[in-house]
Amino acid sequence: MVPALIALAAQVGVPIIRDILARKIGEGNAQLATDVIGVVARHAGVAPDQLEQLAVDEPGKVMTAMVAAEPEVAELVPLYMAELAARQETYRMEAEDPLWARAWRPLGMYGLGFIWLWNLVILHVANAIWKTALPPTDLGILLQLSALYMSLYMGGHTAKDLMAKWTGRR
């Protein structure tokens, strides 16, 4: 991925950063390596996409940034491992649920997608072919249904928290 950074990390003696960048820790979790590069870049005073070039141009500056970033990176690893374990546990629990309990998400997505496709394309083509005047669904209502689905699926806790705040309940 970033051979110059891996070599500098090995040279300066920051094993956690070296192992993360070499994908020995957090394998399959590219976000961890990206965040580590961001932390080192912040300590070096450059943008993350410029860190590799800085490692070639000014390796001493990057080495100093790596040494300064090592304690902060050491705190990130357990957080990422806990997140990964929680994600795997969620997937395992969802796989054990009956189909009807977990089918609402894909059915909702495909259903809304079909309703949008029906209203914007299929209905007009069908009206043109059969010379009918089937009315489309009001797009305002369709947008509200889509927003409701997205708030439940993508932000259910946010909607729940807002409702609790508005009603004064916890």
From TrEMBL:
Keywords: Membrane, Transmembrane, Transmembrane helix. The chain crosses the membrane at residues 107-129, 141-159. This is Holin (3TMs family). The lineage of its organism: Bacteria, Pseudomonadati, Pseudomonadota, Alphaproteobacteria, Rhodobacterales.
